[in-house]
Structure prediction request, 243 residues.
Amino acid sequence: MLRIIGTYTMVMLSFLSILPFLSFPMMATVSPASLEDVLIQLETLSETLPHELDGDRLVELDAIANWIANRPLDSSVELIFICTHNSRRSHMSQVWAQAAAWHYGLEQVHTYSGGTEATAFNPRAIQALRNLGVGITQTKPGSNPSYAVQLQPSQPSFEAFSKKYSDPSNPSEGFAAIMTCSQADESCPLVYGAGARFAVPYVDPKSSDNTPVEAETYRTRALQIGSEMFYIMKQAASIIQHQ
Prediction:
C-alpha cells in the first residue's frame, strides 16, 4: 500500500511540474467596441452585400425595404422579428434594425421581437451585443429577465425580454413579420395580425455554445444581422428620398 501511495505521489508531482507548459483549449475573448464605431462598420459592411449575397436573399431584403418605404410617412412602421425561442437572432435583429432606422433618420420605424414560445434573452447574445457597443442593463431578474436597451444617446431606451410574438407589448396588427429562423418560419405558417411576412433566416449561434469559438461566433452572427438590417434601412431611406 505504501509503495502504491508513493508511486501515485511521484506521478502527481511530475504532472504538476509540467502543468504550466501544457496547452488547453480556452474560450476566446472579444474586446468591446464603441457603438459609434460599430455603426460605421455596419454601414460599410452593408455596402458590400449586393456583391456577396445570393439573388434570392437580396430580393427578400429589398422587399422589406420597399414595404417600409411604401408605408404612409405620417404613420408608425412596425416590424416584429420572430424566431422560435426569442432568445438570440430575433433580439439581435430587433436591436440592429432599430439602430439602423435611427441611423438613417427613419424615426417612424419601430422594431420588436417575439417567438413562437418564450424562454429568455440569452446571456451570450447579450454579451455579444454589449461587446459591439450596445448598452444593455438588466431591470428585472428572474428566469426570464427584462433589460433596458440603449442605442444612440439621443434616442430613448427600450425594453427587451423573451416573449411570444403575440405578447401585449408587441403590435397586434398591420406589422411586418420577419422570420429570422427556419424553424419558426415552417412551424408558424400564419402570423396573426401581420400586414406582411418575410423570411430572412440566420444560422443559430447556439451551435457554438461552450466551445472555444463561442464569443467569435456570436460576434460574427451579430455583425451579419446588423449589416443586413443596415442594408434594409438604407434602401428604405433612399426610396423615400426619391419618391
Notes: Residues 124 and 218 are 7 Å apart (CA to CA). Confidence is low (pLDDT under 50) at residues 1-28. The two ends are 90 Å apart (CA to CA).
